[in-house]
Amino acid sequence: MLANLLKAHNKRNSIYKIRQPDGSISTNPNIIASTFMTYYQRLYKTTNRIQTSDINSFLKKYAPAPLTPEMKQLIEGDITYEEIQQTIKKLKLNKAPGPDGFSSLYYKKIQEQLTQHLHRLYQHIITGHPLPPEMNEARITVIPKPNKDPLTPKNYRPISLLNTDIKMLATILALRLNKVLTTIIHKDQIGFIPSRQAPDNIRKILNLIIQANKTNTPLCLLALDIEKAFDTLDWQYLFTLLETIGLGSIFIKTLQTYYCTPRAQLNLPTTSPLGYIEIHRGTRQGCPLSPALFALAMEPLARAIRENGDIQGLKVKDKEYKVSLFADDLLLHVTKPLTSLPNLVKILADFAKVSGLTVNPDKSEMLPCNISKHMVKLIEANFGFKIQTDSMQYLGVKLTPNLTTLYKANFPPLIKLLTQDLLAWDKHNISWIGRIHCAKMVVLPKLLYLFRTLPIRIATQDIHNLQSRINNFIWNNKHPRISKQTMYLHKTNGGLSSPNLLKYYWAARMAQITPAHASHNKPLWVEIEDDLIYPYSLQQVLWLRKIPYNCLQHISPLTKEMLQLWQTLRHRHHLISKPSPLTPLINNQDFPPGLSKRTFVWWTNSGVTNLHSLTAHNKPLTTPQILDKFQPPPQEKYRASQLAHFIQQQAKLGDLNIISSTGLETICRQAPLQPGTLSLIYKLINQPPLNNKKLNNMLKWERDLNTTLTTKQWAQCSETANKGSTCVTVRETSIKILHRTYLVPYRLNKLYPTCNPQCYRGCPELGTMLHIWWNCDIVSKFWDSVIHMLSRIFHTQFPKDPLTLLLGKKPPRFTNSGHRLSQHILMAARLIIASNWKKARLPLNSLKTKIICIATNEKLSYMLQNDMEAYDKIWMPWLLHENDPQLFMALRA
Predict the structure, then answer these.
(1) How many CB atoms lie within 10 A of CB 238?
(2) How many Å separate Cα 161 from the centre of its chain?
(3) Of the chain's two ends, which shows fewer C-beta atoms within 10 Å, N or C?
(4) What range does the domain containing 766 cover?
(5) CA 79 to CA 102: how far, in whole Å?
(6) For the segment 533-556, what is each residue's pLDDT rounded down to a tens digit?
(7) Using CA atoms, how far apart are residues 789 and 795, in angstroms rounded to an integer?
(8) 10 found inside a domain
């Protein structure tokens, strides 16, 4: 609900008027529907017959190399029960169903009964039998493209809502195809390929711009627009390509069946579903298989460009870089434009002739770097590309011809937009915790994208200013009641996980060091930056005690800036151990024998590249152990002694003569390309100081209650407060108690001496936090009644312990489900105290009403998660206790 409130989807997606072919604008729903219908009928109809000989000729030259038998085995074969079950498990519950109306929840609910039938159906399909016509139907819904004219049908993106059964089959095929995509498709293509991301191409392009400026080489950055790319791909070309690369008869037959007779019904927001559209080309947007198929379809074009010697790319050392792709987003970086561009245009025409994918020159843009104005005008006159002199949009960032203007072109406009969003959201009635969620859901992702894609230094003052605006928004422009340091901490550490922008920036920058450690499929930007510091590599210099001077002579500014930040953060935030297991053995000035790479060639080829490769259970190997593990030839035994001596020396630098790994070092060693790395590193950077693990609110509660809790117990209390209910309002009261944000009389008197420090309820006692919530006679009697209820529900004496009743500490011998129920009831009790803050009476009869409200919200949440069994397990003791048949039927699953 909060996301819908902020994004206002319904208003943006409604279509109230449309422009007719004659230029007139109509608001008539029937005419709007007819206009869209005519447009999509033409779009999905094959217009020009493509010659088979032309396709074969093009693919013979430029198709990727055929799959090996081992690779083919990964995608061929019968569909298994395990594949079907895993696919059902991964179905998302919040997705709209296809035309048959069977949702993901339906398949999850009766998975056991359906799996056998689906297996038989899919086996029937992969042998080439036709699909039932209804199964291959889709419903097309349209979404307006951002920053495009909403009056034109072509500026809407058609999303196909497929039936869940056919979507599951496509998912199984996509998962199989993903296993070989990284082998088939060059690293220039990063769209929808496993372990590849948009920042990979952006950083590669920035390095090329830097090198062009450094060598004063004329460089054209050309962003080509392929018109309606996903919707116009020719099927004959696609299937011929799949056969050429040898994907296998089962896979191809299944795909041909899938694409045999598809049709779709157009569904506009303002009308009922319209007639059917016969589809004869394109890959359906919304199909899990479409991105992989389209990436495959683009690969012959990329190969044709790479292999054409008359198209000149930019060279870094002995490697040439010509093209970068993200699915259909094609960016060329070419030199010698008067020679390269005519040859490029010819290849694009040849590709359009066989694939149906046509480049629109009017929407294609060029950013010239180091090119004279006369040359730019000549290019514009001859090729029709739109010339951008200051910046050019690519993959959500603005590329500039010089690195010095990159920050100004990207960050200030975004910060201004986010500031405006924060001001606009102030008019909404959003809770305190809800405001933190706003910052994390909307503000943070937009900033993180730039942090990840633009590896440049940011203006710290800009980030501090935006951070202040976010904090003011969270506190609704009132004085904060919790310190910033506590707000930023993770919930498990007693904080509220409010985003710390500067630390997120650091985490994004540190996440960029992990791809350098990939054993294969390293991004191309790593190759470029490695080549610039040869004979060193980025993987080596990161873990050296001191960066060698000769490494800095030709280093990329992006690498240099990253290393400077790394040197600052690695010890401050305990990202590196001493000694580091990733300390290199080659090109390390602390290990003189390894300065000559040829000396240790045999060892490097055997995988001995860093200290970790010479350890067992974090302990350094001795010479006999090294000889036994690697079995080197006789001439290498002396090297084994040198290695053993060095690692023993390094181990003595640590406290326990061991070589252990930090969290970041473990990521670099084990999974450098895994998703979620940034979040893991942020958590490492955002850890509380090692010498102060307890926060002020924790220490004050321990003082008031005359007790001491372990860090683990405080973490459990924090988890209970933050996850105890799906309702934010219910959780918020418990979080405020935990963090002592309530302004009790005693605290108000300290702030404003004229305020009465005594209890609100007429007691002569001081209105301290503990008194207002626990010691006051009125509150104490209320808690007695709550304890009596809990004791009857659980058939055991519930402890009258403020640690449990106020802070959420788990009672002894309680099960997890019992603790969950008790906390729901206690949260309702805390709400009653908070909502009757200054009253002399606490209405116990309101407790049942509050509990029913909480139970209803919980039931809806568990229904959405398809986990009503867990709901029943938690709430059944209370329902049985109430002994109300009507309530029992209303709240049971």
Answers:
(1) 24
(2) 23
(3) N
(4) 696-891
(5) 22
(6) 999 999 999 999 988 888 888 899
(7) 10
(8) no
